[in-house]
Amino acid sequence: MLSDQSEVMYWASDLQLENTEASTSRVIRRTVDTKEYDSILYGPIVDYSFRNLETLSDCLKLTPRTGIKPYQYTEDKKLMSCSLRLSHNRLCDLTGMKQLIDSMFVEPRRLFWIDLSFNTFPIIDPVLILCLNLQILNFHGNQISELFEVDKLASLARLRRLTLHGNPVELIKGYRSYVVGIIPQLKSLDYSTITKQDHSTATVLKSFIKHKHAVRRKYND
């Protein structure tokens, strides 16, 4: 299992590969190629874990936990980072999430790593789909109990690593295959690499569910 900072670095190397394209003139083009962005990308995780937070607005009253690497701020006191940890709190919803990110980060649209593990979320809040560059989402140790909650994450085209273990939903038969089928772009689920066999099983399950729903609609008609 990768450490949190290693996970961020692993993602960053993936991003560089995805955003690098060699042309016939051997000119390397990147979506982002400034040193300023590098400092934002590799900035330390903004850490609000273990702060007994009940609402996201509480973050504005506190300072992030300090680590080995100091935070870097812009002149308008915004953080140069693209990752946020809110784990081990008492959060049950993400009301004010967009406002928090916009006010806290110098480049809110580049947020790619969010840790919401070990809270009390009963659902996956749709506000997460506004984080278009989200690639890593830790959501384990919460109270998600319905498989269809995962459907909300399907539109996150860049999502590569997801954790949901420790939620009641993982006890549902076919859980892993369902998640892989709904979010086929994932490379890892619950810290376990997604294999070709996982994709094959997910395809079979998806076809079965589709057929079952079709039969049900026909019967009801």
Instruction: Provide the residue-averaged pLDDT.
Output: 83
Helix and strand element order: HEEHEEHEEEHEEH
* DSSP helix fraction: 25-40%
What is the CA-atom radius of gyration, in angstroms?
19 Å
The unreliable regions are: 15-34, 211-215
Task: Count every helix, treating DSSP H or I runs of 4 or more residues as helices.
Answer: 5
Would you kindly provide a written description of the structure presented here, covering whatever features stand out?
The structure is a single chain. The chain is globular, with a radius of gyration of 19 Å. A hairpin with a 2-residue loop joins strand 8 and strand 9 (192-193). It has 221 residues and is of the alpha/beta class. It is built from 5 helices and 9 strands. Helix 4 (175-182) packs across helix 5 (196-220). The protein has helices spanning 4-18, 35-41, 97-104, 175-182, 196-220, and strands at residues 20-22, 28-30, 46-47, 83-85, 113-115, 136-138, 161-163, 188-189, 192-193. The chain is 29% helix and 11% strand.
Any chance you could write out the topology, listing elements then pairs?
Blueprint: H1 4-18, E1 20-22, E2 28-30, H2 35-41, E3 46-47, E4 83-85, H3 97-104, E5 113-115, E6 136-138, E7 161-163, H4 175-182, E8 188-189, E9 192-193, H5 196-220
Parallel strand pairs: 3-4, 4-5, 5-6, 6-7, 7-8
Antiparallel strand pairs: 1-2, 8-9
Helix pairs in contact: 4-5
